[in-house]
Amino acid sequence: MGAYILRRLLLMIPTIFGIMAISFLVIQFAPGGPVEQVIARLSGQGGDMISGGGSDAGNQSGSAVDGSQYRGAQGLDPNFIAQLEQQFGFDKPWYERFFGMLWDYLRFDFGESFFRDIAVLDLILEKMPVSVSLGLWITLISYSISIPLGIRKAVQDGSSFDVWTSGIVIVGYAIPGFLFAIMLMVLFAGGSFFDWFPLRGLTSENFDQLSWPMKIVDYFWHLALPLTAMVLSAFATTTLLTKNSFLDEIRKQYVVTARAKGLSERRVLYGHVFRNAMLIVIAGFPGAFISAFFTGSLLIENIFSLDGLGLLGYRSVIDRDYPVVFATLFIFSLFGLLVGLLSDLIYTWIDPRIDFESRDV
């Protein structure tokens, strides 16, 4: 297992390099870079001004700077434009910027945001509590619903309970989470009906003045609607996966043998079937958490004004805040690869018969 882990860790290096290289190259051709963002703001056009001839990142080092290179720069001092390029690092060749960025990232030095006057790592840590809250609770709640429901559906396969719950699960999965979030907001957050839940933030303004039991109540009061909107479709896949895994195991010969020995149905189900059937479900837990943590909450964060990592990444792309964009991409990619390795290790922990050591990576 040690050799397998080492191979996987070594393979992460070219994988992350490829992800960062492709993303960096794409950025070279994306219009409306940081220099143009500043020019647009100076000209009173906000951040919507897009270059007609490529991004700032694509400019060649050492080229003559004049206002014609950026839409809206006519009339501005060329020295000012040159200072902007130097400030954002575009006075250097692309390969120097790329490898310099990778060297900094290997030392976990992510620099500072272009437009927020704060270190990128501090900015990510500042937004992390919202994403951790959403990712952790949505994963725990969805698994708490999915596993018991999937087991019962497998045991009662073909019954009216199985049919009705399958219909509910499929309908819930088909409804977009953001649409359900808007409906919840209209119904329960001061829309046209009730004003029972807050519309924004993870805590109330007087959170620090509350007693610790009331802090817990206030925390879950703010999370109630976002989690409800996200959980509707989150448990559908896991429920059906659990059901199908149990059905596959129940039909195997060792289950027939266990029943023939006179073991109770409960003992057969939870003493023999459960461990084998839950292998793929439990091993997928880290991946499910990371998915909900990093990618599953962008629209929900927007709707309920929760300032988390999803919203941070989206705004950074819109603002062309490249340090934040690349840093979050690097961190998300690294976490994703590590979680993939962790899932494999959980497989071997749950079922020692699985041996990755004898297989190619």
UniProtKB/TrEMBL annotation:
CDD domains: TM_PBP2. Keywords: Cell inner membrane, Cell membrane, Membrane, Transmembrane, Transmembrane helix, Transport. Gene3D superfamilies: MetI-like. InterPro entries: MetI-like (IPR000515), MetI-like_sf (IPR035906). Residues 128-343 form the ABC transmembrane type-1 domain. It comes from the Bacteria. It is a multi-pass membrane protein. The chain crosses the membrane at residues 9-30, 130-151, 163-189, 219-242, 277-304, 324-350. Pfam families: BPD_transp_1. Its main location: membrane. PROSITE patterns: ABC_TM1. GO terms for biological process: microcin transport; transmembrane transport. It is found in: Cell inner membrane; Cell membrane. One of its GO terms (cellular component) is plasma membrane. NCBIfam families: PRK15133.1. Belongs to the binding-protein-dependent transport system permease family. This is Microcin C ABC transporter permease YejB. The lineage of its organism: Bacteria, Pseudomonadati, Pseudomonadota, Alphaproteobacteria, Hyphomicrobiales.
